[in-house]
Design a protein that fits this description.
heterodimer; A: mainly beta; seven-stranded mixed sheet; B: mainly beta; four-stranded antiparallel sheet; globular
């Protein structure tokens, strides 16, 4: 069945770079895109970016200068890197599958990984 | 960026009752292809969001018909009838018509 799982550090220092991995199973990254969404503690959801099934990427303009997403299709992994971290980057980070056309919704989600940025 | 405003922020509903959540957009969510990419999610406590409704009114696989979505343009509504304990959590609308894709602020459904 379709599964996604995020992994990475629990604690990162301010000004450093966050590296997260989303490992997927039950589908191919060449057939579906993967999206990153984050949620600060007790707050709402923010779309960060997407890596499309063809490998192209799109980013939220608010994060574009600090964010990169890429993948290793042979390992079924998607990678998020975000630099110049600040304390307000503390959040649960989710990866989710892009269903693509015609519905264009995010269907399956990982459980999320909590990242704390320490000053 | 498109701002989605959800009201109310919180809802107290009795078991078996009906809930209605509004999601209003700062601009039309009709895409240039004529479709409207407004979706609804439920985030249960301690869990990741789950898809309920896609493209305004289509129930996702396995979602009971107690959940229904409606609306057009800038005004959208999610209705939950015969509320059950497993419906509790925070409901979010998401628009994917305009980049950046944005979520509403959320509506927390609690039992009275």
């Amino acid at each position: 069945q379709v599964q996604l799982k995020e992994s990475g550090p629990v604690l990162v220092q301010a000004s450093e770079t966050l590296s997260l991995t989303c490992t997927v199973s039950g589908f191919s990254l060449t057939n579906y895109g993967v999206i990153w969404v984050r949620q600060p503690p007790g707050k709402g959801l923010e779309w960060m970016g997407i890596i499309w099934r063809n490998g192209n990427t799109d980013y939220n303009s608010a994060l574009k200068s600090r964010l990169s997403i890429n993948r290793d299709t042979s390992k079924s992994q998607v990678f998020l890197k975000m630099n110049s971290l600040q304390t307000d980057d503390t959040a649960i980070y989710y990866c989710t599958r892009d269903r693509g056309p015609p519905g264009w919704y995010f269907d399956f989600w990982g459980p999320g990984t909590m990242v704390t940025v320490s000053s | 960026d498109v701002v989605l405003t959800q009201t109310p922020v919180s809802l107290l509903i009795s078991l078996g009752g009906q809930a209605s959540i509004s999601c209003r957009s700062s601009q039309s969510l009709v895409h240039s292809n004529g479709n409207t990419y407004l979706h609804w999610y439920l985030q249960k406590p301690g869990q990741s969001p789950q898809l309920l409704i896609y493209q305004v009114s289509n129930r996702f696989s396995g979602i009971p018909d107690r959940f229904s979505g409606s609306g057009s343009g800038t005004d959208f509504t999610l209705k939950i009838s015969r509320v059950e304990p497993e419906d509790l959590g925070v409901y979010y609308c998401l628009q994917r018509t305009h980049n950046p894709w944005t979520f509403g602020g959320g509506t927390k459904l609690e039992l009275k």
